[in-house]
Amino acid sequence: MLPAFGLYTHIRQNEVRSRVLVAGLFGLNLVLAYGIALILRGVSANLPAGARPGLSAYLHAAFHDLLWIGPLSFAVTFAWLFIAYHAHRTMISATVGAHPVAREEALDLYRLLEPLCISRGMTMPALLVADDPALNAYATGLNPEQYAITVTTGLREALTPREMQAVLGHELTHIRNDDVRTMMIAIVIAGIFAFVAEAGYRTDMLRGLFSGNRDGKNRAGALPAILIGALLIALAWILSKLIRFALSRSREYVADAGAVELTKDPDALISALIKISGRGDLVHAPSGVMELCFDNPRVGFTDFLATHPPIEARIDALVRYAGGRLPPPV
Question: Torsions phi, psi of 196, nearest 5?
């Protein structure tokens, strides 16, 4: 199931991953900024006075542009991180239609979650409910004051109290292990590059790839510079997407194990997994939110790119290592 290592090792690895992700964000921003500088130079056929037209001249000119584009991209990154840090839960909730619920509105959920938090001395995360028939749940937050667990109305209707507590224990373990913080940082990184790609698509910058400069001035080397810039932007965007898949899928196995540790009820978690399997797609949720969910049925074109292990593999691990039992066939 998993390599033999302790929970604190897993948490420490998540801390290292978070720092690497943030450092990688700024590195990818420089690549993105250089690509944009190359495209702008190539489209405008603008070279410093006295420079001999050619690809080398465009590469050097774009490098000097980093002196102002680089700091600007860092400023935008810091602004994005600030907004995401303070408003990510609100933005995600607005996307999926989730809203906080008071104790009197969801007494059943509070009574299931509170004992789990008390048993581990954890601060009670906020509880939200998403009006969606899908069967799913997810946790969000970057610090104890922001942590929240969201469940769908479909999940509340479909699961028994034992099964619901197992799912809540799974999400609480993600919070306890810092999985949530690591995934939120990865989603924020991807969001920056998605925003830049969308902005570039909706402006005249990309249209310039095909129109160019009609007077032919300084055109030698302009087209290769434009193509290299476009490739660098595409590379930064692809890496921002793939960076999430570098996060080990073992986090789901560890969260399942944590749920069993909290509830002492592997059978309930197995039963919940069976009910949720194939019924967890939140139609209005972007792929980044689905990667936070208890189950992510959007596996992509290969299982290699899936952010979650198959439900069958998770059930098999619970049977083999946690003493769980499959329910009798209906």
Answer: -65, -40
Average pLDDT of the segment spanning 98-112 = 95
- Please, which residues have CB within 8 angstroms of residue 105's CB and are 6 or more apart in sequence? none
Nearest in space to 149 (alpha carbons), one of 178, 122, 174, 118: 174
Q: Please give the pLDDT value at position 204.
A: 46
Neighbours of 181 (CB within 10 A): 22
Do residues 122 and 143 make contact, with C-beta atoms less than 8 angstroms apart?
no
Backbone angles phi and psi of 99, in degrees to 5: -145, 145
Q: Which two tokens stand for residue 285?
A: 């949720």
CA 330 to CA 327: how far, in whole Å? 9
Q: Considering only 82-91, 142-151, 199-208, 303-312, which range has the smallest mean pLDDT?
A: 199-208
Beta bridge partners of 211: none
pLDDT above 60 for 300:
no
pLDDT for 1 equals: 44
Looking at residue 213, its pLDDT comes to: 46
Which residue is listed with tokens 């028994």? Answer: 160
**What is the three-class DSSP state of 43?**
helix
Query: Which positions are annotated as active-site residues?
Result: 171
In angstroms, rounded to a whole number, what is the distance separating the alpha carbons of residues 263 and 322?
Answer: 12
Rounded CA separation 64/210 (Å): 25
pLDDT 10s digits, 302-323: 455 567 889 999 999 999 999 9
Whole-number Å distance between alpha carbons of 251 and 2 = 10
Furthest CA-CA distance within the chain: 81
- From first CA to last CA, the distance across the chain in angstroms is 28
